[in-house]
């Protein structure tokens, strides 16, 4: 039976962290969102959008690396914010992270369902469309976004999320084995797609490289910027590395290596994949959940197409697993501090897994996967990621000034300035500015959608914010206050049993 235990065991090295980072980064960004960003916003210049998003994330990755080196604990951005800014801001960020990981899992599962349907179709096997389509649809009718209800729900996507949560609940050893195998497979297949697809591209598909603006954020350099803000989600995975700090043997050294190494590898593969994808298929045809499946069908080699589709499934499956890992660790930290119920920080005695938390979180993500359309989920994720990154940079500046005594094996590069003794780093300031710049196109587009009649994204954010405020005021804050008067051992025991 799952019972409280002293904590999660230290079982990861830098190699395991690198695999975890690549597992969680390299997935929906290339297999799902590249097509959406190219078709709706950037055209062939989606490669520029990827480069911009990757450079922006590098600034934030430096901040994560330093904070992880001086605070090697579970919880990642939530923990850093709590140590630096206190309980209120930390709850707001943690609640937003809860949304981001839940919706990210849903989006990944929708892509998984699309690729699975394409693969089975190659063998003449099909399942009813009603089992792989969301209940809620958002489509443009005479220039207005209109919501409608479909005839079914995405059962396939929901089952994919539940399976990932179940595997993560089995324990670190089983999770690590499955994740490593999937990462090796998906990297090999993606490199194969770049090499084979690169020999079959039609350069005419890259013209014009930056399509003329058609109003708003549809194409043009405005669209490139909007595409970059959307593709922020593609790099969310590097943050998952820092959630594993408490399970790492040498976190001060290995976590920065895992974060920066995974980001460098995945940015390179994203840019190259974007070139090949838009070279194989006219960009206006890529607005589907499985763009690479469409691209490989254009290559004309059925055997290669089959292998690449299997690799795409492996890629999305590995990200689903890594997402389940990171989500449960953030909830573990929030529960340990009193802001979430006790079941989220109960560690299984023999499996060394967050058994209850993994299964409950998978159930929540499965519901949104079955109900919501891809476009809405992507906007919710991108909006939250930018806010999270800005808060991490603010936390770094605060910790440099209030806790200069902490040992820092890694420091953000390029230094900073002191204004009346207060240190302000160039990198964290650039990360804050970049995060808000990335958020602006998403926020403006969401408001524009609401103006045209599509209130789904605004409504979901509003309801979620109201729910989070209520939980904090009436449950989390009182419980955290009770824990704060206990010593560490008493607090941990209380958090796991109340």
UniProtKB/TrEMBL annotation:
Which InterPro entries does the entry mention? AA/rel_permease1
Q: Which Gene3D superfamilies match?
A: Amino acid/polyamine transporter I
Q: Which UniProt keywords apply?
A: Membrane, Transmembrane, Transmembrane helix, Transport
Instruction: State a GO cellular component annotated for this protein.
Output: membrane
Q: Where are the transmembrane segments?
A: 12-33, 45-67, 92-116, 123-140, 146-170, 177-199, 219-238, 259-283, 303-326, 354-374, 380-399, 420-443, 455-475
Annotated membrane topology? Multi-pass membrane protein
Name the principal localization, coarsely classed. membrane
Per the record, the domain of life is Bacteria
Keyword Protease part of the UniProt annotation: no
Which cellular compartments is it found in? Membrane
According to the UniProt entry, its GO molecular function terms are: amino acid transmembrane transporter activity
Q: Name the Pfam families for this protein.
A: AA_permease_2
PANTHER family reported for this sequence = CATIONIC AMINO ACID TRANSPORTER 4 (PTHR43243:SF4), INNER MEMBRANE TRANSPORTER YGJI-RELATED (PTHR43243)
Protein's UniProt name: APA family basic amino acid/polyamine antiporter
Annotated organism of origin: Pseudoduganella umbonata
**What high-level taxonomic lineage is stated for the organism?**
Bacteria, Pseudomonadati, Pseudomonadota, Betaproteobacteria, Burkholderiales
């Amino acid at each position: 039976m799952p019972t409280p235990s002293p904590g999660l065991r230290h079982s990861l090295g830098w190699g395991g962290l690198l695999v975890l980072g690549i597992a969680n980064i390299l997935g929906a960004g290339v297999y799902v969102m590249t097509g959406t960003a190219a078709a709706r916003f950037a055209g062939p210049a989606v490669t520029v959008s990827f480069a911009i998003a990757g450079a922006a994330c590098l600034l934030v990755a430096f901040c994560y690396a330093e904070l992880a080196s001086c605070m090697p604990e579970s919880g990642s951005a939530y923990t850093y914010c709590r140590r630096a800014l206190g309980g209120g801001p930390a709850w707001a960020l943690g609640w937003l992270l809860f949304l981001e990981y839940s919706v990210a899992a849903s989006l990944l599962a929708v892509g998984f369902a699309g690729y699975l349907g394409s693969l089975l179709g190659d063998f003449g096997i099909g399942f009813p469309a009603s089992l792989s389509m969301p209940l809620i649809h958002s489509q443009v009718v005479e220039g207005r976004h209109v919501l409608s209800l479909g005839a079914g729900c995405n059962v396939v996507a929901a089952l994919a999320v539940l399976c990932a949560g179940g595997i993560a609940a089995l324990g670190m050893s089983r999770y690590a084995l499955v994740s490593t195998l999937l990462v090796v497979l998906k990297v090999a297949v993606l490199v194969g797609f770049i090499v084979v697809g690169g020999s079959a591209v039609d350069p005419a598909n890259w013209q014009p490289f930056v399509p003329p603006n058609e109003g708003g954020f549809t194409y043009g350099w405005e669209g490139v910027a909007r595409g970059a803000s959307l593709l922020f989600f593609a790099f969310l995975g590097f943050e998952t590395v820092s959630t594993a700090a408490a399970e790492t043997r040498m976190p001060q050294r290995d976590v920065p290596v895992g974060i920066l190494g995974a980001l460098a590898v995945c940015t390179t593969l994203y840019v190259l994949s974007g070139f090949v994808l838009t070279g194989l298929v006219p960009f206006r045809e890529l607005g589907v959940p499985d763009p690479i499946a469409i691209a490989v069908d254009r290559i004309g080699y059925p055997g290669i197409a089959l292998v690449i589709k299997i690799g795409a499934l492996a890629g999305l499956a590995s990200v689903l697993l890594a997402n389940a890992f990171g989500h449960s660790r953030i909830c573990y930290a929030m529960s340990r501090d009193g802001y979430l119920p006790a079941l989220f920080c109960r560690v299984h005695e023999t499996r060394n897994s967050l058994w209850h938390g993994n299964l409950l979180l998978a159930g929540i993500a499965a519901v949104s996967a079955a109900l919501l359309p891809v476009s809405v989920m992507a906007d919710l994720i991108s909006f939250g990621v930018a806010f999270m990154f800005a808060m991490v940079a603010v936390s770094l500046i605060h910790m440099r000034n209030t806790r200069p005594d902490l040992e820092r094996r890694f420091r953000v590069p390029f230094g900073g300035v002191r204004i009346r003794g207060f240190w302000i780093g160039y990198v964290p300031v650039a990360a804050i500015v970049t995060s808000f710049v990335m958020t602006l196109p998403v926020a403006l587009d969401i408001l524009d959608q609401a103006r045209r009649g599509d209130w789904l994204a605004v409504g979901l954010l509003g309801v979620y914010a109201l729910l989070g405020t209520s939980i904090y005021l009436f449950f989390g804050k009182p419980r955290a206050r009770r824990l704060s008067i206990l010593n560490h051992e008493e607090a941990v025991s209380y958090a796991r049993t109340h």
